[in-house]
Design goal:
The structure is a single chain. This protein is of the alpha/beta class and 216 residues long. It has one domain: Alpha-Beta Barrel (TIM Barrel). The chain contains nine helices and eight strands. It has helices at 19-28, 51-58, 78-84, 99-108, 123-126, 155-164, 181-187, 196-199, 204-211; strands at residues 6-10, 33-39, 65-70, 86-92, 112-117, 135-139, 169-173, 191-194. α2 (51-58) runs parallel beside α3. The mean pLDDT is 94.
Length: 216
Amino acid sequence: MNKRIRVSASILSADFSCLREEIKSVENAGADELHLDVMDGHFVPNITFGPFIVKAMKRSTELPLSAHLMITHPERYIEEFIFAGCSAICFHLEASGDPTSIINTIHKNRAKAGLVINPDTPIKVVEPYLDRIDFVLIMSVHPGFAEQEFIVDIIPKIKVVRNLALKLDIAVDGGINDKTVDSVIEAGANIVVSASYIFSSKNRKYAIERLRGKNG
């Protein structure tokens, strides 16, 4: 595969009282993109933010914005998030009645389309779409909250997806830190999403480099 490892800083663990400064901090520390966890309080038992806040984030950074939509009826909001500044959107099959239509809408608006694989999601339900999407996001925790413990059982899923789609970008999100990152990269992931490990670090540049497999 030999894909460059990219680090996606999840702002779920940022200090929202000084969000612009937090975003600039991880940008200057070398993050490749910002990961935005969008929750509606219905699909998952938590609420975060919508397109208005995303638009403000976009004005604060040159980094690409990748939105993980943990919402019901994602098709209703795809274009709003893209217009707000997101260059990549991923969503859950469990929340969508017509995944192909959503994928087409994302691509029509010149953004990257991804599907999310929860710890309990069978690979077989995602497999028919692998040649239509740009990336998968494999959850190594149950979606909805930060600072959860890494679920090691997702490692075989990463390997299966990598074997099915050699060129596909594979992101892993949840409990990613210096203790868990090597195993997901070895399994085939090339994008690592991290929240608390990055934002709680006193040396964010070092933390981001460690997530790339350096400084280990």
